[in-house]
Amino acid sequence: MMKQSMKFNINGKQYNLSVNPNHTLLELLTENLGLTGTKMGCNDGDCGACTVIIDGKAICSCLVLAIEAQDKEIMTIEGLASNGQLHPLQQAFAEYGAIQCGYCTPGMIMSAKSLLDKKPDATEQDIRIALQGNLCRCTGYVKIVEAILAAKEKMKLAKQTISHDGNK
Predict the structure, then answer these.
(1) Range of 137's domain?
(2) How far apart are CA 45 and CA 51, in angstroms?
(3) How confident is the model at residue 163, as a pLDDT?
(4) I need a labelling partner for 118 at 20 to 30 A (CA). Which of 52, 95, 148, 151 fits?
């Protein structure tokens, strides 16, 4: 199959890549760009390990052809940290012991970020619903939900600081 030239916006950077038209976004991220934070689990969209955010929505990257993701805003776990500082969700997962083996963590964090970007006052029930597509075999999700609730509060405080400060 002939590779096609495609344009992607991933983690705020523009990429022009030659990609096989039958490659998934997951394959593009991991094989073409070396972004290994996005994990391949089931490759059927059932486990959520490969979750990324496309145009604000949490999506299993194993179910999206790379060609379908052209010219869209794509964010991976690598795009969350800023200026050497972990995102509040990443920090909370570490602080609350919500990581366990870590394989599902990037997908969990990306699903949580998508939710909190849309619904900053998400309830515990909202969080549990948003995580339904993410499987973790190491935990009962209690610490994961606690971490997301804690990050939610930090994110709200950060937004208040920015809106009051005006310079940030």
Answers:
(1) 88-165
(2) 9
(3) 66
(4) 95
- Give whole-number Cα distances, 32 to 8, 12, 19, 46, 69, in Å: 12, 17, 8, 24, 14
Last residue of a domain, one of 77, 105, 131: 77
Rg from Cα positions in the chain: 16
64 plus 34 within the same structural domain: yes
H or E element in which residue 25 lies: helix 25-27
Q: Which long-range contacts (CB under 8 A, 24 or more apart) does 121-130 make?
A: 121/152, 121/156, 122/152, 124/149, 130/58
Query: Are 108 and 153 members of one domain?
Result: yes
**Could you tell me if 53 and 75 are in contact, meaning their C-beta atoms sit under 8 angstroms apart?**
yes
d(CA 106, CA 47): 12
β-strand partners of 57: 54
Cα–Cα dist 98/105, whole Å: 8
Confidence of residue 165 (pLDDT cuts 50, 70, 90): low
Tell me if the pTM is above 0.90. Answer: yes
Taking the C-alpha atoms of residue 160 and residue 122, their distance in angstroms, rounded to an integer, is 17
pLDDT tens sequence across 112-124: 999 999 999 999 9
